[in-house]
Design brief:
Number of domains: 2
CATH superfamily of the largest domain: Type I PLP-dependent aspartate aminotransferase-like (Major domain)
Strand content: 15-25%
Distance between the termini: 28 Å
CATH architecture of the largest domain: 3-Layer(aba) Sandwich
CATH class of the largest domain: Alpha Beta
Largest sheet: 7 strands, mixed
CATH topology of the largest domain: Aspartate Aminotransferase, domain 2
Radius of gyration: 21 Å
Bound molecules: ligand PLZ
Shape: globular
Length: about 450
């Protein structure tokens, strides 16, 4: 295990919450049960939840519920609160902006913070070529726009996505997403001209990066053809699909093929972006420079914002008025993003993610050495997964995974599952979590696995 100089976690911010796991009722407690009953009556059944609690405050590495329980947060609201929940710089920026104006619509009356976010993204994303950006509200909307832009630029239509890929819940992004349940089932018909290629999944396919790329490129050439293909879109590390890290050489070979064939290479860094993987963007870990990159989640410290950033000539392909939206690049969200990006760059968050990753990997590989049901531990930085299998057959064990996750939550540790086969627990804590609390959370995971 590499040792990394100790980096202080970012300041807790928000309400000064004791950084502790504290259970004063069973989960869910009575107040939370009341909210969940109202939720069932008032909110559409399709909108689920992982932890059955009523959240009332969050900061550092905890979420506090209405019953006074304090739960350890190992999920960051799905990789969003990377700078922490209510980082003081983000709070101050949001409060100042909200008191100034909440909205003008950037397409009507532009303002500084939108342009500042675009400048920052152009600067910090991989590659030193000339770049431009456009801002949107959600990850799915960024992906939709990246595809629009790539089609307009190439004057071609087909798009290739990958096995285990996740790109959103809108119609086009459902088509790009691989997994039927729960994301797509019954919601079709889906957008056309979307094709799927095989991914590099070292734990399950045993292929080298070069061989996996050859296989994918062969599918693309035979089933789509470069002449029809506008874009290839891929998460450098699959998020919802199971934190799948492709074998070395897979991504560079795809990028190279795209470059030679006039195909726009889009890296969806919505989950992997902004220091999460121990690099500002995961593309850097694989030595690739995408043509376009989609970002969201961690960008604005919890406020809704998303972006497409990329080669200026591609980004400028759209006619004036072709891109936009009422709220895209909302000034409050942009103020939060300017502050968050400042934190990512100047408060050692990349090093902090590496340190959190070293703790996670160290603890989980130690657990794996004793327990053959923990088939694979993988990931980078503060984006680490444990894949659970049947120890005899190596088959995915979704039931075990669900049982471990459920008992963690009952014990006051919020963990998220993922994976095409539902057999992965992913660890993506806020970087503001104190080390001791992270260790305690992992103690609870270990105990849950031992008793499952
Ligand atoms: N691309 C790589 O991870 C969002 C969604 C969870 P939105 N992932 C979490 C769920 O069940 O809805 C995501 C992602 C990648 C795109 C998206 C979509 O981002 O902001 O949720 O639209």
């Amino acid at each position: 295990m590499t040792t990394i100089d100790t980096v202080a976690a970012p300041p807790l911010g928000g309400p000064s919450l004791p950084q502790e796991r504290r259970l004063v009722t069973s989960i869910p407690g009575p107040r939370s049960q009341e909210l969940l009953a109202r939720k069932s009556a008032a909110v559409a059944a399709g909108v689920g939840h992982t932890a059955p609690i009523e959240a009332v405050a969050a900061g550092g590495g905890v979420i506090v519920d209405a019953d006074g329980n304090s739960l350890i947060d190992l999920g960051s609201g799905i990789a969003v609160t990377t700078v922490g929940n209510a980082h003081p710089k983000v709070v101050a920026a949001v409060q100042a902006q909200v008191a100034q104006f909440t909205h003008t619509c950037f397409m009507i009356s532009p303002y500084d913070s939108y342009v500042s976010v675009a400048e920052a993204l152009n600067r910090i994303t991989p590659g030193d070529h000339e770049k431009k950006s456009a801002l949107f509200n959600s990850g799915a909307e960024a992906v939709e726009n990246a595809i629009k832009i790539a089609r307009k630029f190439t004057k071609k239509q087909a798009v290739v996505a990958f096995d285990h890929g996740y790109h959103g819940r809108t119609n086009l992004t459902m088509a790009l997403t691989a997994k039927a349940m729960p994301y797509k089932s019954g919601f079709g018909p889906f957008a056309g001209e979307i094709y799927r290629a095989p991914l590099s999944y070292p734990f399950r396919d045993g292929l080298s990066g070069a061989d996996a790329a050859k296989k994918a490129i062969s599918v693309i050439e035979k089933q789509v053809g470069a002449d029809n293909l506008a874009a290839v879109i891929i998460e450098p590390i699959q998020g919802e699909g199971g934190f799948i890290v492709p074998a070395d050489g897979f991504l560079p070979a795809l990028v190279e093929w795209c470059r030679q064939n006039g195909v726009v290479f889009i890296a969806d860094e919505i989950q992997t972006g902004f220091a999460r993987t121990g690099a500002m963007f995961a593309s850097e870990l694989f030595g690739i420079v995408p043509d376009l990159i989609t970002t969201a989640k961690g960008i604005a410290g919890g406020l809704p914002l998303a972006a497409v950033t990329g080669r200026a000539e591609i980004m400028d392909a759209s006619h004036a008025g072709g891109l936009g939206g009422t709220y895209g690049g909302n000034p409050v969200a942009c103020a939060a993003a300017v502050a968050s990006i400042d934190v990512f760059e100047h408060e050692g968050l990349i090093e902090r993610a590496q340190q959190v990753g070293a703790i996670l990997t160290g603890r989980l590989t130690a657990l794996q050495a004793e327990d053959p049901r923990l088939g694979d531990v993988r990931g980078h930085g503060a984006m680490i997964a444990a894949e659970f299998v049947n120890a005899q057959t190596g088959e995915p064990d979704a039931a075990l995974t669900a049982a471990v996750a459920k008992s963690c939550i009952a014990e006051g540790v919020i963990v998220l599952t993922c994976g095409t086969y539902g057999n992965v627990i992913r660890f993506l804590p806020p970087l503001s979590i104190p080390d001791a609390l992270l260790h305690e959370g992992l103690d609870v995971v270990a105990a849950a696995l031992a008793s499952a």
